[in-house]
Amino acid sequence: MKFEARKNPTSIELHKGDLPASLDFGDCVAVDTETQGLNHNRDRLCLAQLSSGDGVCHLVQFSADGYKAPRLATLMSDPKVTKIFHFARFDVVVLKKYLGVDINSVYCTKIASRLIRTYTDHHGLKHVTKELLKIDLSKEQQSSDWAAEDLSDDQLKYAAMDVLNLHALKERLDIMLTRENRMELAQSCFDFLSTRGQLDAMGWGYMDIFAH
Question: What is this structure's pTM?
Fold first, then answer.
């Protein structure tokens, strides 16, 4: 199946606290999170974004007084569903902390980019999307207040755009990884993400434990 690169979502659905019961993302879902900052111990989870690659983006907004989201948690822990992230190392720690689940069957487009786009040092979502999909992402809302009770239309669109094209990016990156015989290496890196996240959460985030 070839996924279409999209400049805008066809629909943005905002849900409070959890996903609706009837929602089915199939066997592969794009996922991202928005937090108050980048410190796992200080900054809480505010939003989770999901898409099946069909142009529809579902956003789950969390309040500070609870993170009981059983349907989202079940989806995240389902080994039969591939979860596509960009910089999964951060998201798997946040989702485990607040939803209490181990995220498995992970694909990280940032890791894939680093393994195959060795001709550049630019591996942020904006750069990868620009090169591979010819779409220029706006990052204007990246540092906005995601804990606000009422998110603006610009915030909602920004959040949706972060998952809108991850299926298409995975598709393009897989072609490149296969071409250079690095798919198996990439999968090994994806499989290590749970352990990498645990090391981050326990304080070894900036230490290379494999160093001399």
Answer: 0.95
